[in-house]
Amino acid sequence: MPIHVSDVIEEFARQGDEVHLFTSVKGSVLETCPWRNRVKITNLALIKVSWLNRLGYCLLLLMLLPIYCLLEKPAIIYERASISGLVTVLVSRFLGIPYVCEINGILIEELSLGQQARWRMAATRIWESMLYTHSSLLIAVTSGIKNWVSHAYRISPGKIEVVTNGTNVHRFRPVEQKTAREHFGLPPESKLYVGYLGTLTPWCGVELLIECASFVLTHLPRVEFLIGGGQEPYLSEFKRRAKSKGLHRHFVFVGSVPWEEAALFISAFDIAVISILPLRSGASPQKLFSYLACKRPVIGSDMGMTGEILKRYDLGLTFTPGSAASLGEKIVELLNDTQRRAAMVERARQIVLDNFSWAVKVKQLKDTFKKHALMDRCR
Asked: Is residue 44 within 8 Å of residue 61, measured between CB atoms?
């Protein structure tokens, strides 16, 4: 289950809203969710074959969701954009229940970066057009997504609201750096760690860290790069790139980091990096808010929300999007300025608590539902 989905569910439950989750997540994963006893869950058992898995989920959803809606009369159906959305929007329109679709990125752009087949991209356009057109309301996590969706599918901008991502401030809390490093078997004081935690994809920008590493090490030989995230084949490819440049001794790839250890991992960093490649959607990266909630100064690409927040609150430095040379220069600059880093971390967490926690974001979501008169029982 994406951590974003889990956190939003947890916050709705924390604020006293009744939530019923339809999912196909493994029972063992649900057992790790702290909100599992406060949420009603319908777990749809699936066949363990990828294409049958998706088809089976859609068919089960088509059978069970209408029954639930007729019995329980939910105020709203909320879903992160997915292939099953066509089933959900069909049920919502047939039963007259408002359907809200959350859009976290421009899938066409992500597929092109991943070099997917043209037929898949064409099918995605058709699916997105149908889903977005027939939704009651669209929630975009950036203004770039809103503008693109409105233009690409001729949807009124008034039907699309921007509510940015946030972070779980209960999970992401600072841990004493020595404790964090000892947990992961890292030297507590002899190294400076530039860290990244997140997905490993063609657009995450980890390759920029590999490209700028030689420059950084020339100026600061005791730097190491700490990378958390485990998707294949990208993890193996990044390891291969680092080795081909003779940098494998300076890169620590730890693979997937469990949710419960994420704050511990981030706390081992001296500085955190968000090096997402330039995307038309901009970005509302949860990792930015998670880094800041753990009191880490951040270096991020000067684009969209990341650059705006870092500059507005002086919580880090920004570099030229897609430029390894610029990223390397900013890493060296910030690591050499101990006093400025200390000032950044002093205010980082409070800014997240005030503006970018899921408590704040879920309240914004419910205010948006009220604004569009979608649910008469919304708190």
From this structure: yes
